[in-house]
Amino acid sequence: MATYLIVGAGLAGAKAAQTLREEGFDGDIVLVGAENERPYERPPLSKDYLQGKSEREKIYVHPQDWYAGNGVELLLGTPVTRIEPADHAVTLAGGSRRPYDKLLLATGATPKRLPGPAVYLRTAGDSDALKRRLAEIGGGSGRVVVVGAGWIGLETAAAARLAGCEVTVVEPEPTPLHRVLGPELGEVFAGLHRRNGVDLRLGTGAAEITEEGVRLTTGERLAADLVVAGIGVAPEVGLAREAGLEVGRGVLTDASLRTSHPDVYAAGDVAEPFNPLYGRRLHVEHWANALNGGPAAARAMLGQEVVYDRVPYFFTDQFDLGMEFSGDTTGYDEVVHSGSVDDLEFVAYWLREGRVVAGMNVNVWDVVGGIQDRIRSGDVVDPKELTSG
Ligand SMILES: Cc1cc2nc3c(=O)[nH]c(=O)nc-3n(C[C@H](O)[C@H](O)[C@H](O)COP(=O)(O)OP(=O)(O)OC[C@H]3O[C@@H](n4cnc5c(N)ncnc54)[C@H](O)[C@@H]3O)c2cc1C
């Protein structure tokens, strides 16, 4: 009987296990996770769960009894310390070895860290601790400094404001989300946060974080009761690198999510697959990529023809802005929109040489399919057609 072993019990790993069973795999499935929690989804950790608006039970990918009920051996609190592709075996913390026929790497990513006493938000435990701290210091007097105006930083800033804290966000770029959205849409997020009382310090970084707060690169000191850093993540590629697999920013795979070893696959935040739609490798660190990439890798492990060519997709909720983003803005030369930016109800399109490369719907729903079809088609469009939509 074949054994398929999945390293990393997050969303990608859990969805891969589910797909293996749904597709009729009747061998052994072993899902090994470093955390003590069964697989859960991370987006609520900086949104409704952090804000105390949803229960713990809602974050989990499957009910507790799903694993035993589906013959999935779930090993929690057990990091894999080594993989040996040539021997088809892994070593677990504690030293025991487990053989496999095929392996999926779904080890995710870890927050980049800064020197000093900042807190980070990646795990359910991080979110619980942050929620408790915000409740302790909230109520108008707590001072929170958020380092980094990316998705996690902005969502955390919103949660801290809603908890009653004074919030300052520090970001070296000229707007929030500058690298992903560019200045035009970055300004929309800047406006949103300013309107909600967040003090944005743009064009300056954190030079030093101490128990007293943050010293900025400009020399200014911001006193803080809590410093949260959201400065990006690094894919967990250590095991793959030590095993001699090809690694770039993530673990390199072909379009079927197969790594440089034929019996090892990678999916989710850790993977850097070749995406045929873009004709290049695309490293995506978003929920939908774990949700869809895990199952795609599982099907490839079963020998099915898999071409993973999805348009990247992301969503966020901050204050009264809910949005979905599709595509990749790299190299865009024009941004147009339909609807009203002032009323926070619009669809923005990024174009490159007249073709839609990305789109973002803000408080407008059920349009993602149409946006992604435009990106996929690669057709040159008349911007007027987009602005009147
Ligand atoms: C607070 C937060 C909010 C987010 N919000 C959004 C959002 O709104 N929209 C969106 O699109 N995306 C969001 N994301 C990103 C999204 O959650 C990730 O893209 C997704 O979790 C990736 O899933 P994954 O299974 O690849 O990795 P992970 O969820 O990181 O799971 C990987 C698991 O592997 C384990 N692991 C690592 N190394 C080993 C090892 N050696 N042995 C065993 N196990 C190991 C890790 O402990 C971890 O549990 C958010 C992320 C965070 C942290």
The total of helices stands at 9
Question: Which cofactors or ions or other ligands sit in this model?
Answer: flavin-adenine dinucleotide
Q: Major sheet: order of its strands?
A: 3-2-1-7-18
Beta-strand residue fraction: 25-35%
Low-confidence stretches: none
Whole-angstrom Rg:
22 Å
In total, the number of strands is 25
Query: What structural class do you assign from the helix and strand content?
Result: alpha/beta
How do the strands and helices of this protein lay out in sequence?
Layout: E1 3-7, H1 11-22, E2 28-32, H2 66-69, E3 72-75, E4 80-84, E5 89-92, E6 97-99, E7 102-105, E8 109-111, H3 124-137, E9 143-147, H4 151-162, E10 166-171, H5 178-195, E11 199-202, E12 206-209, E13 213-216, E14 221-223, E15 226-229, E16 233-235, H6 238-242, E17 251-253, E18 264-266, E19 271-275, E20 280-281, H7 287-301, E21 313-318, E22 321-327, E23 334-340, E24 345-352, E25 355-362, H8 368-377, H9 383-387
Parallel strand pairs: 1-2, 1-7, 2-3, 7-18, 9-10, 9-15, 10-11, 17-19
Antiparallel strand pairs: 4-5, 5-6, 8-16, 12-13, 13-14, 19-20, 21-22, 22-25, 23-24, 24-25
Helix pairs in contact: 1-7
Bound molecules: flavin-adenine dinucleotide.
